[in-house]
Specification:
It contains 10 helices and 18 strands. By secondary structure, the chain is α/β, with parallel strands linked by helices. The radius of gyration is 21 Å and the shape is globular.
Length: 397
Amino acid sequence: MTPRLPQRAETVVIGGGIVGTCIAGFLAEAGMAVTLLDSGHAAGSTSNAGSLHVQMQSRFMRLYPAQVPGLEAQLPLYPLAVRFWAELGARLGLDFEMKLTGGLMVAESEEQLAFLGHKAARERALGLDVEILGRSDVERMAPYLGPAIVGAELCRDEGKLNPLAANKALAGWTRGLGVDRRPGVRVTAVAADTDGFVVESDAGRMACRRLVIAAAWDSGRLAAPFGLAIPSVAEPLNIAITEPASPLIGHLVQHADRMITLKQLGSGQVVIGGGWPALPAAGNAAPGLELDSLIASATLGLHVVPALGQLRILRCWAGNNTVVDGRGVLGRVAGHPGLAVAIPGDAGYTLGPLAARMVADDILGRAPMVDIEQFRPERFNVALPAQAAGDGGGNGQ
């Protein structure tokens, strides 16, 4: 049985994924007493594949073309976010098993290579370090790729980490700072109160002075009573991991036209992801595995890296990505003192700690390390309904 919540807290963070965890830690470092609530189910961070993305993902560009301008607007954040991961680990003395080996987005045709060339030009204009490689360069740099690959876009700032190690280390950091972590608590509603806010949950009612909504796809529901129509949507995805192997895949590998990400962890295991859909689930349940997606992703992985055929898949799982409008939703909410929202944007695990730092600085009255104005929640302002209400859903990335 989940312990009952205390009646009052100074600061409550809803969502215990990478974003909520880091915000709680940064605020606690500044001397705030923080309670972190997390439902612990259907999570994004705890089911993440560990990619550190920098270049625009072709999958996102195809599925959400209307959101590409928003993605481009925050593209300069991605290399900063990867560096921030490294700096955070070094500052805290934590090992995230992070490797910046570079990323390759591969092409199988001249048409796909031309698409990468156009994409790379847009990315370079926004400050990314990318270049286009021909077949000979690909063979020299990544001999493990299959014969169908005719070229690739190289982004040297991309890499990978072990999300299980990172999540565990950062949770331990927050506990050491005195953060009151409350797993297994589903928030059913939030509202403004005379002294701040009231949080209703299946573990009781809690009042607080400050409230941070960092609940990934569930953030839109929780923010609605405050006049925000954030279109946060859960996107369930399949992921698989193989048995350990000797060093094989040296980069974060993606495809110019098809859904795949491949990376090899320090353990030798290869993670197969890339956005193949899983089965959606209602409310707080975890998404379900989609057999067709698992077969398709494994088949495509074998096509891109033929040596994967020697390995067995040991485990498959599904998690939720969060889609909004291509940009993060970050910062304090105008008209509601003490309220903030933190949704990082596409490739949210990559952006997580940096986005959390930006929001924490905004809450603390410090100038964020990156200008936060274009990411503020007010761009989703709507007329406040006569009676705010909210129920259902599953908060907590």
